[in-house]
Amino acid sequence: MLMSCTNTTHTDWADNLKNAYAIHNVLSSRSELPFFIIKWNGEKHIEWMELSDPRHQPKPYHFEIYFGKESVRDAHYLEALKAARARDQVVLRNIYGFWDLFYKLPADSSGQTFLFAGQFLQEAPKWTSLCKNWRELTGQEPVGANRDFVKFVRMTLSLPVLEPDLLKAFKKFVKLYGKFLSGKAHKNDIQRDVDQLNTDVLSRLWPIDDWVNSVLSSDKFRLPLWYYDGELADWIKEGMGIVRLPTTAMSLLPIESRSQLYDPAQALLRNAQIQRACIAFVRNLPETAATRLQDYGISIITSSKKGKSRARARLELKERAERLRAYLAERFHVHSVVGIGRTQNGGTSLYESHKEAVLAAHMCVQLGKNVLFHDELDGRKRLRYTDLQKLADTLVEVLDRQNSAELKVASDLYITVALQYANDRIEVARGQFLATLFQLLKSVKRKNPMRESAFNSFVLELTSRVEAARSIEQVIESFNGAIQRLSFVSDKVWRGSSVMLLESTLQYLKDNYFENLPLPMIARKTGFSVPAFTRVFKQATGTSYLSYLRSIRVEQAKKLLTSTPDTIEQIAQACGFHSQHHLIRSFKKVAGQTPGAYRDAHAIRGNDS
Questions:
Q1: Paired sense of beta strands 46-50 and 91-95, if any
Q2: How far apart are CA 425 and CA 556, in angstroms?
Q3: What is the sign, positive or negative, of the torsion defined by CA atoms of 144, 145, 149, 152?
Q4: Are 206 and 117 spatial neighbours (Cβ–Cβ below 8 Å)?
């Protein structure tokens, strides 16, 4: 914190400390928007002095530098500084969709010293704005297969969003900050005004995630906010929107449809929209606060009303969970599950309750429940690795017997126990699933002779999906997908040297549906003649090659119709159809309606329009 020691006739040192502390309370927990002092010589030379905590997270200017746009940003700064020097107001400037704030310090009569904050957004990101900004910045098309684009989306979603009411209040704060830095304060007037802004607007519209995270932290040396007082201070009540000590943790997970293929960038955006909306909604629930759970879920702290019996307290918590689920279903048409950890004594860390809540939420998926208390789980005894290994051995045996119903039961039981063993540690879960996957792969190879190169390629493909998963649920989905593919490969009907080629072909079609994929070329890649491939393909999938490929493309078109504003022609090109009319004919054959009618019937509120 830069403290002004000039102009002491206006204020004494004690008042200056109070003013500094008020400003510190606003900035210290909101490091996602860094502040700088800029010294400008009036030409091209700029000096920077950082005022806030540097977290060194990716920012828009890192992408601008990488893609050769550094000179554009330099020119942007000079234009903005010229505009700010000519005014006594806060100046905002936009570049590639990201905003910067400039304010000339009143103390510098030469107009060469400025307060700067950036970068931020003025509205929540949408798919159209993300794509537009990416194209302007890079000249590339935004596709989920581009890792740089996915990183760009993740970076954008990490930026603060200063919507109109919040931005108006923040401009007032910037002027107060500039007044303080210029030594223009009169006694504690800055403290009073900053505290009032923080109470009335900033705490409500810009909640501090770090406070909720501190309550859920696994660090035993990180004391709860209320440790010394034993109760919630007024500033905590304002910042978190609760007045009682929280006692229970919840975890909410939106569940992706297994029938849809989600572009990783669009999934990030959708989850961020859900998280942002949920955190705002939770603010209206009694005695409840929330923060993000990685990049896919919501972590919640809450408490039931004092004096209630255990049964009534559980009912209150469950009703709160159901309100959250109903909100998501209404706002986003998304199915979700909620796990609830055990209630702790008020004032203690909620880390254990949080771990239990996350596990219970993941178990909801396996057990087919919408809301689950952790103490409702079976098998609460301490699990040993040998218990888990026995279930993995059973899974191998069942896979070999090729009974689909038995395989589903064995797989679900294994996943359930593996989640309990992992105890919300994603890397433990990932490692366990990978170990079992290798065990299953070895078993399949023993019974299905195949070329070493084909087997190695198959192993890499299955394991890389598990390794790349961003959440425990995605690890589970990848593992389940691998089980299904192994089941096909090990089916006694297809045992032999051709099975891997055919299985790889099915996956190739799913990954490359947007390309031109004529039957003769695919048959040749598989090593069959066209008649033989057609016969084998129909026997393996129950449908013809063209029908199978058409269904994949139509499913992808469905996703784009409900998640993007792209035209029918654009979607046709993106999904591998020859033309808009080709898409319409194929879509009607598969879905029984036109793409336009499907889009109207499945429009999801909360997405771009």
A1: unpaired
A2: 33
A3: positive
A4: no
Q: Domain 209-216+229-376 adopts which CATH fold?
A: Alpha-Beta Plaits (3.30.70)
pTM over 0.85? The answer is no
Among 1.20.1580.10, 3.90.1150.10, 1.10.10.60, 2.60.40.3880, what is the CATH number of 504-609? 1.10.10.60
C-alpha 275/C-alpha 252 separation (Å) is 10
CA dist 466 and 352 (Å) reads: 27
Residue with tokens 């359930």: 416
Encoding tokens for residue 213? 């995270």
* Average pLDDT for 368-393: 76
71: buried, middle or exposed (CB in 10 Å: 19+, 13-18, 0-12)? exposed
Burial class (CB in 10 A: 0-12, 13-18, 19+), 553: buried
Where in the chain is CATH 1.10.10.60? 504-609
Q: Considering the chain, what is the average pLDDT of its residues?
A: 83
Rounded distance between C-alpha atoms, residue 39 and residue 298, angstroms:
42
Chain centre to alpha carbon of residue 94 = 25
Smallest CA-to-CA distance from 290 within 323, 330, 332, 268 is with 323
Q: For residue 208, what are the CA distances in angstroms to 59, 169, 176, 218, 292?
A: 20, 16, 21, 19, 11
Handedness of CA 201, 202, 207, 213 (dihedral sign): negative
With a CB cutoff of 8 Å and minimum separation 6, the contacts of 160 are: 30, 32, 33, 120, 121, 206
| Percentage above 70 pLDDT, the chain | 87
- Residue 154, pLDDT above cutoff 80: yes
Residue 358 amino acid letter: V
Residue ranges matching CATH 3.30.70.270 in the chain = 209-216+229-376
Quick one: average pLDDT of 314-334?
Answer: 93
Decide: 435 and 388 in contact? Cβ < 8 Å: no
